[in-house]
Amino acid sequence: MSFSLSKLPACEFLSLRETIPVVDVRSPGEYAVGHIPGAVNIPLFDDDQRAEVGTIYKKEGNREAVLRGIDLAAPAMSAKLKRGLGLATGRKLLVHCWRGGMRSEAMAWLFSAGGIEPLVLDGGYKAYRNHLLGELGRERKYIILGGLTGSGKTGILRQMKSSGEQVSDLEGLASHRGSAFGALGQPPQPSSEHFANLLFDDISAMHEDEPVWLEDESRNIGTVFMPDGFYARMQAAPVIALMMSIETRMPRLLEEYTSFPAEEIMASVMKISKRLGGDHTREAREALGKGDYQTAIRITLEYYDKSYHHGLSRRPVGQVTYIRTETDDVATNMALVMEASEALKWV
Known about the structure:
It contains 17 helices and 12 strands. By secondary structure, it is of the alpha/beta class.
């Protein structure tokens, strides 16, 4: 039986995902850290087997590692092929491992033996990562929606998206709302690696000639760190910042956070205790102990407001457009934001 291997560059490989399933043949542990969104994991080796083969390769060389790999993989080959056959569309599969080497070639041979045409990612997952990081770092039209904590930025962006604007929900992708309290009520966060994979998919689907709206974020959203090149583009983009009083923001924040147990809020306060200072931390904890969420929120807001104003002040003159409003009505504030965006000039 003849076997020919078709290898595709990352851009071509990714363009075929809409019609051909992707099979990631790396170990489950590698897949869990980060993978091409939508890819199905059919590993050649499990995590322990991969570690064993890698150790043999380092100590005894390639031939011995290959032989041991065959011993380990052979008993499960039938099950792997059956999974591939059940997954294949039009008798085709997109296949990749870490660097486009022996694991993807071995699984491509197996799928080919079952009548499937395997299309292998040249350079593997590593090439995909290099491609997406380059794409995320290149110049593009972004507009940053900023504003003080509790000013309803997420709701505005959602309304904008429903109205046809291009919006990438960074906090949604990161499963975190961005502050020390951002993990409350959220699912586990992805790795920084997988966040970038999700972000690339999201932004790649948007039109190049129209701006993409993003919420103003620090370099990290919880435990997730944004790709350096992408974050640099965010830092250079125009900012439209909503400014409103604590009194205007308070009802929204009370609604969002009073549903969580006081001990969870208290744990979040302790995350920023050094920045709040001993007296403010104690006052916030005492307020929470009495069920006085409003006082605790006011104390933390004063810290976040000061920090955010400082961050905006460090941006170049003319980069930030301030919108002062004393309503938290999403539709009203969205209209103000959209009006401000019309005055932006693109280089």
